[in-house]
Amino acid sequence: MTTARPPADVARSGDYAGPAAGGGRAARRRAAQEERRRFRRKRQGGHHGRRGAQTAPRAASGALGAPGSRVEARRRARAAKEHRLVLTSRVVGELFITLGAVMLLFVAYQLWWTNVLAHKAAAGAAHRLEKQWQDGGQGERAAGAFEPGQGFAIIYIPKLDVKAPIAEGIDKHKVLDKGMIGHYSGEQETAMPWAKTGNFALAGHRNTHGEPFRYINKLKPGDPIIVETAKAYYTYEMTGLLPQTPPSNVGVIEPVPDGSGFTKPGRYITLTTCTPEFTSTYRMAVWGKMIDERPRGKGKPDALVG
């Protein structure tokens, strides 16, 4: 008698319950078909379970990825902030470098280039003045007769190797900044060298713009100061120095200068400039008295020869 066997995969699963108790071949066939359907359903259920198990770690990993995303976002925000700080510091640094370069250029202009321009302007003014004298033009005039800024004399300080034109007035832009020496005029008018008595008072820059009076503090009693005009050479001898005085002290340019040691009218010269160096806080004054008047026709004085 032939016994119906279940399919091999059904037999291995252990789910086969055996043939039906009765009903013949058709019943057994239906029972086998039913067993196979039941087995398929179980297998399909197992696949769904495995898919769910596979998707679970993905969901878990997604849930675990959220904190990592926040950390990454904070890292990116911190990097962007640091980039902005670096960019800002770079811009500020470049601005400081540019400002420093501008300041260096300004210092170079003040301390060097203004001297170049002033020396050139003063040399030109002195040359024009000498040519006028050679041509017989411009004689000696009374104080105040020259126009503001007009040159009328040349000063020499041999010890300091100074030669500079003297112009009327002490205007900074018209006279002093051009490397010239200014003669006190207007409300502070002082005598001319050819006057019989009086104080020929002058002002000049100590620093920048030609700085003709930079080293007048190095003059010693007896050092010559010569003023050349259209008619004569006037030689003065340095007698004293006032190292520092307020700008308001106009007594230093009086006909008989205060503090000079002179006690009576005479033919004097006063040189004034700013002090300390590179400031205009105070004034320095150097005094001298005339010791010689020499007509130009007789040639240069001994202090200018050799």
UniProtKB/TrEMBL annotation:
Matching Gene3D superfamilies: Sortase
InterPro entries: Sortase, Sortase_Class_E, Sortase_dom-sf, Sortase_E
Active-site feature positions: 205 (proton donor/acceptor), 274 (acyl-thioester intermediate)
Pfam families in UniProt: Sortase (PF04203)
CDD domains the UniProt entry points to: Sortase_E
Domain of life: Bacteria
Residue ranges of coiled coil: none
SUPFAM superfamilies, A to Z: Sortase (SSF63817)
Region (Disordered): 1-76
Keywords: Hydrolase, Membrane, Transmembrane, Transmembrane helix
Residues spanning the membrane: 91-113
A molecular-function term among this protein's GO annotations: hydrolase activity
Ranges of biased composition (kind: Basic residues): 38-51
Name of the molecule in the record: Class E sortase
Provenance organism: Wenjunlia tyrosinilytica
Organism lineage string: Bacteria, Bacillati, Actinomycetota, Actinomycetes, Kitasatosporales
